[in-house]
Amino acid sequence: MIYVVIAFLWVSICLYVITGGADFGAGIIELFSKKSYRNQTKKIMSKSIAPIWEANHMWLIIAVVILFVGFPTIYTTVSTYLHIPLVLMLIGIIARGTAFTFRNYDAVEDNWQKIYTQIFYYSSLLTPFFLGIIAAATISGSIDTEAKDFLSLYIFSWLNPFGVCVGFFTVSLCAYLASLFSLHEARFSDALPIMKKKARETAIYVVVTGVLVFVSAHYSDIPLLKWIFSKALGIIAITLATISLLFTNEAIKKGHFLLVRIYGGFQIIMILVAATYQHNPNIILFANGGHLSLFDESAAPKTIEALGWALLLGSIFILPFLFYLLMSFGNQSRKDPE
Amino acid sequence: MDDFLAARSQMAMSLGFHIIFSCVGMVMPFLMAFSHYKYLTTKDEVYKGLTKAWSKGVAILFATGAVSGTMLSFELGLLWPKFMEHAGPIFGMPFSLEGTAFFIEAIAIGFFLYGWEKFNKWFHWFCGVVVGVSGLASGILVVAANAWMNSPAGFDYIDGKYLNIDPIKAMFNEAWFPQAFHMTVAAFAATGFAVAGIHALMVLKKQNVNFHTKAFRISAGFAIIGALLAPISGDVAAKSVAERQPIKLAAMEAHFETEKGASFVIGGIPDEENEQIKYAIKVPKVLSFLAWGDFDAEVKGLKDFPKDHWPPVAVVHYAFQIMIFFGSVMMLIGFIYLIATFWKKEWLTKSWYLKMFVAAIPFGYIALEAGWTVTEVGRQPWIIYGIMKTIDAVTPMPGIQYSFYFFTLIFISLSLIIIFLLLRQLKMVAKLYDPTDPNYNPKNKK
């Protein structure tokens, strides 16, 4: 059962990065769009994410619940030593979620919309940045539980060049995903060439920030290269991610936009495989060389058993509905090519 | 402000706001589905407009409830890591089920909001009902976790270790049913009164009278059901507290001396130093009856417990008095409503009748917050009743007061924005939602 629980944890993090990431990316893309076609971008973006956005953030809640029920020590370690970036990320999530709703559901359209829009943009940028920083902090060995002063305990546990680079990398990934996903919605609109250009630009950002991650890891003595390339699965995952980048480009040229979405999602999964597999099952690495492992820190067997069943039953309920939701609104946009 | 106090204040404030958002989220979908049902059976377009207007309210509050809920799932660990480390695996079961319920709610909202004219009309209606049912289910499940803190179960506590953990037993703890029942009923009363009052105000202002009268009738109906059931569920809850947490009951009533045939204390100023209550009205023997169903039963007083196990008596006592007061007022309004509906139909359109509902807009929420204060502050100094003290659970990180100030700011601005948005929805009723209005033109939002 512990494997079921870990699988759910991993899948929900994956889905959060993909759907939530595309969601954040939509805001980032809009923020960096030129004013002249911002409105058009906004329409396309909100059309592609509005019906499912409420579901997106549920993946994060599920991951958090799995952590605190199944792996309480890991949850409390993260929330104690990474308190500050977590709060910053939360602020991003709150501001963004509410601003998005208000943008969509406000009865009157006037200048107030501009304020929500600004909040929406900047929180879309902030949230994935801190998400990246948090993820980096768990494996970079920067959490020092034996430190005595406030700065080393609660600030330098996450604030370092490697974390910042991973933050930028996450932001670029989100923007890249969003631009890939939006191509399908944009295919009948005259904004299509612009969106295609965006997809190419963001792909470059992903590669550049990805290189930065490796460079900063090297200077911070984090053996990232060794981790990834010392195991077969790591090498395969990175290779597949790179190859599918080429396939994506091909599919964009040919106009197979649904394929583009699948390739995009696949790339993210491969990157996450590479990032998480190499030190599996150790999920947190400390400054003193110690670590927290998913197996050693799991809760009592009865709890894991119950949690596993709850997740399995839950997914039997949820998945068909979610699928139907995506299907019905997918078909909808096909029928109605504005 | 010291870190412990700041952490407690931040948690109290976050829950205090979340409780409002989530209660609206639990009840509003039922109002919406009821109006939708009326539309489907009567074909009256006004009901359709009303359904759409309410569904926007549901969407706005659901989204806010979702973010404040996400925040709470993190705050539990950010503020109380020691508590979560031990409690997480024991009381986590309802949270994992709640995840499912909440997910279904989110999906059903997606179907409902974007599904007009797209699905079979009864399927579409059913989606609205699912929103309500799953919202209610998540509320009830979350209360199970809180009930566990009041009535810990499903583990053995031996030498500071939590052994033989059984999350299912923990979920079905003794306090769950009474707390969940009372909470649900209170949510209906609070939301019903708030919504009914707002529409009554619009009727009084003579704006879209037909539309708002229909809205008022539906929401008042729900409010009254809640108001009349609240004393019953409250009685169940009180009896359960008397059995499980006698010290909490004693604090609620500022009842210092253990006595047989204890009297029910109304009002008064509790004096913890001298262990007595001043200026209170005492109704003989009623407390014994309410707690045990027997006028001569013995009710334990605070003096029977060590003083360092006392909750803040004054806070609990005042909160309890406030809850009882507003609960009774709402019950009274409930009776007036029944008389008006069945015997004195002419009252229904009288302005004093509508004004009464306008005045009652905040009553339900005041009672709800007061009741929540009773149960949470009444549990202190424990975070897990009798097992772990709240002060031992707090995070080691210093500087929590800044986090508290910051979150206060966020919550206040969030609430102001929601009020602002709902007012704007209300202003646009003529244009967007009431098809009988000459200005009706839903396409033009400017």
Characterization of this structure:
The complex is a heterodimer of chains A (338) and B (446). With 338 residues, chain A is mainly α. Chain A has one domain. Helix content of chain A is 79%, strand content 2%. Chain A has a two-stranded antiparallel ribbon with strand order 1-2. In chain A, a hairpin with a 5-residue loop joins strand 1 (282-285) and strand 2 (291-293). In chain A, helix 1 (2-31) packs antiparallel against helix 2 and helix 7 (112-139) crosses helix 9. The radius of gyration of chain A is 20 Å and the shape is globular. In chain A, 50% of the residues are buried. Chain B has helices spanning 3-42, 45-79, 81-91, 93-114, 121-150, 167-171, 176-204, 209-244, 246-252, 286-292, 313-342, 351-359, 363-377, 400-427, 429-433, and strands spanning 156-158, 161-163, 259-260, 264-266, 269-271, 276-278, 281-283, 298-299, 382-384, 388-389. Chain B has 446 residues and is mainly alpha-helical. Chain B is built from 15 helices and ten strands. In chain B, helix 4 (93-114) runs antiparallel to helix 5, helix 7 (176-204) packs across helix 12 and helix 11 runs antiparallel to helix 13. Chain B has a two-stranded antiparallel ribbon with strand order 1-2. Chain B is globular and about 70 Å long. Classes of the chains: A mainly alpha (338), B mainly alpha (446). The interface between A and B is large, with 62 and 67 residues.
